[in-house]
Amino acid sequence: MSNRTHESYGQKKLTFVDRLGVWLSQRAIKRHLPNRSDLEVLELGCGFRAAQLLALAPRLRRGVGVDFQLAPDLATLDKCSFYEGAIEETLPKLTSQSFDAVLLISVLEHLHDPLLVIKSVRALLKPSGALLINVPTWLGKSFLEFSAFRLGLSPKVEIDDHKMYYDKRDLWPLLLRAGFKPSLIKLRYHKFGLNLFAVARRENV
Question: Is residue 25 assigned to a domain?
């Protein structure tokens, strides 16, 4: 479980660097989701304002977000529901639900047991459903730490909470151990190699 028990991403004002990162992640997410208006999407670590889910609103039939703290006005959204709390504690409440996509965007690096979470997420996916992951790479580690600790352009509390960085050789075996098949996993570097984006689909059974 993450130590950030009292603060969600975006609860404080985002810097230009962070806003750019969110925008680039949104582009990657939209590229890998079907262009339909009936998607059921779960975002774990959705952030205080659930920016990714809101950006997907035209494509959603139902959205579910999870984070430590959430903006009160999110409760008024028609197509979305939210859970406040740690991801590991919330996942058991979602066992009866199934999703076209689950988002773990800049979240995996904060988890003590990422394999447990990925296994649980796979069980929540519909056949052919996709898990979308964005994580910082080892190359990105130096840039993120310099930005946060020296320049103040990224939240220091976020970077101090990082427990792991991921290159393809780190994330690929983790997805395999969680039950995803190699033929249904795609990995690519983006954000100038500072991040790794993964799409892992559940087999169509």
Answer: yes
We report the CATH number of the domain holding residue 186 as 3.40.50.150
| Residue 4 covered by a domain | no
Would you say 162 and 155 are in contact if contact means Cβ atoms under 8 Å apart?
no
Count structural domains, the chain: 1
pTM over 0.85: yes
**Location of structure tokens 């740690």:** 86
Closest CA relative to residue 137, chosen from 200, 192, 196: 196
* Per-residue pLDDT reduced to its tens digit, 21-47: 676 778 888 888 988 999 999 999 999
Residue type present at position 140 = G
Q: In whole angstroms, how far apart are CA 94 and each of 8, 163, 167?
A: 20, 25, 29
Is position 147 within any domain?
yes
The Cα 32–Cα 35 span in angstroms is 9
In angstroms, the CA 168 to CA 194 distance is 12
**The domain containing residue 124 runs over which residues?**
16-201
Residue 143, both tokens: 């840039």
Number of H helices, E strands in the chain: 7, 7
Q: What is the pLDDT of residue 96?
A: 85
Q: Is residue 7 part of a domain?
A: no
